[in-house]
């Protein structure tokens, strides 16, 4: 079953007519066996259908949905498709931070003492420190490689998890599907939608500018899948307010590339006054995107039951690495960890002729996972309008990785450019002037709707630029 058909089965009503959805192009775009562009395009098309369901509730009409595979692939590589104007008036690629480059060098599969491969994740200073403490090594490639070479894979994975650090053994796909966590995820839908509590029906806002016009979204996420979920909803017209604390570490390039069309404010939930402000925001929200470690928000008084009391009819989108349950359900993780444990790294390494597991060229799990979260949120909005209810949406990086692997593979990727064409970039480019990042030229929304084109209705904000209010 293709990704689009799998998501339409979750949608669970009459499938859209053939002429409603049009996907053009094919993989490969990147030097990888995975159908990254096609899968992403199919997930975006499913988002278009879900948005169409809401549009039909509002207007009685449906729109044409179209997605370019090449453009969808380009959307997985925002950092290379974000340009800034230099002093000579020329647009140049924005160089990534040195800390990010260091993380990339460190966060790779390394061979263990028992001849397996283990990927430690060293993004964000506090998480890197936890990994280094377990490994008893320094923050260099040579030191981390040497330390891992002296440890057995399973013992190391357990020790990393016990330290609330992040990492994972590089399994094959077959090993993962037999693993208790992989087996659990295979038993549940790629997007889990559960009606947890009763509440009254809620009509969609009386605003027909775009499918999600008038819908309020609290985006309590960072780096990278959660912000992509919020970005997807913003492109369809939602009012998305990012909420983070000024003290929390960020990756600037990811903040820039996933903040288009949103507003951004600072709230520190460890402070009573700020927690009270968030509660007031929740009371008027439709969707909350939760990217914290599972159950972490509950410690601040924002667990699912707390949220339901504050806002009956809220839609809670949970985005994490390992999914809604299973033995790894409480563990934190990242795109690279999901690639490692599910078999993607092994497959990538074998396909490109490497003598070790390798990461794919782009963070596809993050982007696919974020789009899946938006898809689930829109399905829940329709169900709330028709039947009422407080809904829980569960998506994960590992489920996104497994969905990618279910699409099969391509072989003829050796000679591809590894990026989208200039023609496609120019078709989708968006110019944003006078942002806090300068004058930008970026790849714009990829999903196309025939009557209400996806767009960013607000200028890309500086982190914390706005007040904490609707």
From TrEMBL:
The keyword Transferase applies. It comes from Wickerhamomyces ciferrii (strain ATCC 14091 / BCRC 22168 / CBS 111 / JCM 3599 / NBRC 0793 / NRRL Y-1031 F-60-10) (Yeast). This is Formyl-coenzyme A transferase. The keyword Transferase applies. Keywords: Transferase. It holds the Pfam family CoA_transf_3. It comes from the Eukaryota. InterPro entries: CoA-trans_III_biosynth/detox, CoA-Trfase_fam_III, CoA-Trfase_III_dom_1_sf. One of its GO terms (molecular function) is formyl-CoA transferase activity. Belongs to the CoA-transferase III family. It is an enzyme of class 2 (transferase). Its EC number is 2.8.3.16.
